[in-house]
Amino acid sequence: MPFNYLGVPIFVGAPKCRFLQPLADKVKLKLASWKGKSLSMMGRIQLVNTVITGSLAYSFNMYKWPVSLIKQVEQWCRNFIWTGDILKKGIATVNWDTICSPLENGGLKIINLHHENNAYLLKLAWNFAYSNKPWSLLLKARVLKSKYEFRMVYRSSSLWPGIKQFYSTILDYTSWTVGTGSFINFWNDKWCSTTSLANIAGLSDGASIPDTVSQFWSGYDWNIPLSLQHMPQFFNHIMVREEQDIPNWILDESGRFTLKSARTFFLEPGVPGGWGKFIWSSSIPPSKTLVLWKTFHGRLPTDKHIQNKGLHICSMCTLCEKHEESIQHLFFECSNALHIWSWVRQIFLTSHFSNKDDLLSFIKSDGSPLVKLIKLVVITFSIWMIWRMRNYARFQDKIEVSRAISVIKDLTCLVGNSSKASMKNDMLDFNVIKFFGINTRTGKVLRPLPVRWEFPSPGWVKINTDGAARGYPGLATCGGIFRGSMGEFIGAFSAFLEVQTALVAEFYGVIHAMEEAQKMGLTNVWLECDSALVCAAFTARTNVPWMLRNRWNTCLNFCRTIRFRVTHIFREGNACADKLANLGFIHRESFHWYNRLPASLFLEFFMNRYSLPMYRFC
Hints:
Radius of gyration: 31 Å
Number of helices: 24
Strand order of the largest sheet: 12-11-8-9-10-13
Shape: flat
Number of strands: 14
């Protein structure tokens, strides 16, 4: 001991630096200085991410690395990215935590080793908690008294220190879909509410109660304990079934726990509408976008920036030779920059660019996919060219503005012609594309497709449902309408769902509809909705959001006891349900039933009843 097995050191006890140092040294060897000198900064970033993923992933998946060793490897990576040499410390113009953040937060999405190790350990803790593989069962027998209690004394394990750190986190963020109920703790697990029944009932010693859910199911109904009999709503929509109990990761709508879920857990949430995600494009060389990225961060090494670092130097703009050099002056006030921006304004008929916010507004402005790409390309290459003009003027020979504009135009033409983005059929798009010499390409020609609501057979009731959300996630509602074989109105509902995603709202609409159908005693039901995912969920339950699975399974059991069919309809033919969902935003009630047809539905309702078509353009 220790020895290597499949490239990973095997040892007894907690991981120590001396056991894992050989793996760190492999990273060091792969980040050789000759590679750094032959790559751009973006190339070095890609190499660092590839080396980390390939060399450390396996050991990260098993061991909690010592903090000192992670800091050492991060120092090598940081030096390599900024200078190309792991032993040479350079001036980091942007904070390391910032460049490790997501693109929308203004980062470069570099792998943070501490977060990456924790993400792998979180996944290992999930597999330990809910896997029945031999290694998991053996380790549980060693270190756990029960699901919620650790042993005070146990045999030393190299895996347990990493798992122990996140085991309680896994239990806290797990909710259960009930199957047989034999693996779910009745009091401590979250299976019928967003919190445990022990908390609801006020049981301080709930962790020591080993009762399972299956012990409270009589075969057809619940044997609810006295302390919970005043809250039957927790059990009304849940049934025990002859299927496996499924743990769900509550921070993912699908309930599945993946490495991506674990990484997201440790990442700071992205800034909605953050500028970072608007400046990167696969059509533009990353080395050019990097200059724009540094400009937006205010971290280009201009004279003003160097002075702020404490170095006292004389400052003068090399291009105009009139003012002190700063990012604001160089890119927005210098006569050379003003000449380029004047040229851009004449092409796109836009206003003056006075700061980076004006550039960002221009990049984010509306337009066809091709014109939006051209705007980004022009801004990126203009910033890059101004910085290049500055460097050439300082260290070589000056570049004339007319030459710089010609280069920007040629590069834009090259990117535009290599892109597959489409244009609109209007004069602005045509003039812009013609100016840059880009080949014209139009989008798909839309053709009208008539969509009609179909009548159910005699004796059947047809239910149309829909869900809506104003944001992802955002305020959400759902609605549905019940109609007979002659198209006559039977009833309708709308429900306000607080903050949800559109998919969850769609599922809520179907669940409410089927629960009402069961209350009404319907035996012939035709369900129709405009979500293909919801329709597919009746045969494959993989799409069902975890928080609805117990109620969804109850609905499926009801559907098996009646004559039932489900179909998909385009949203144009589902206008009545769509209007009802929008009424939910007005009423803001958790559930509202309509015994009379709402006046706002008259037009769509009678168009359906008289078989008049709605048109879909596709």
